[in-house]
Amino acid sequence: PAIPTGHEHVVYVDDEGFLVDIGTEILRGLGYQVTGFTDSQEALEYLRSHLAEVDLVVSDMTMPRLTGIELARELRTLDNPPPMLICTGHNEGLTRTDVAPLGIHALLMKPVTVNKLSEAVRSVLESHRHG
Predict the structure, then answer these.
(1) pTM value > 0.85
(2) N or C end of the chain: which has fewer CB within 10 A?
């Protein structure tokens, strides 16, 4: 099956620069506009001032300053926040049901492959658009 593509604006947040580079490169290659951050606090500031332009936030779970969950909580305080997708290297025992109230629509286990990332991004964007 073809890898799903898109044109939406995705904010990609991970404290490891090379992972931001890889994630950004994958998503740009699929047609998305991507803004990457290695600092979750900077990402939050960007989101606060560019909220209407962002369609999805892809964030690492474990980061200094704000974790993925804390970033999600902060976003929920804004009007009409974009959906979030969290990537994690550990199964913290969280389920979609646990994180859905925070606007987190998917949990992806690392390492994230091109297929897993593209399918999860498309799926969240589609469900949010119709939801």
Answers:
(1) yes
(2) N
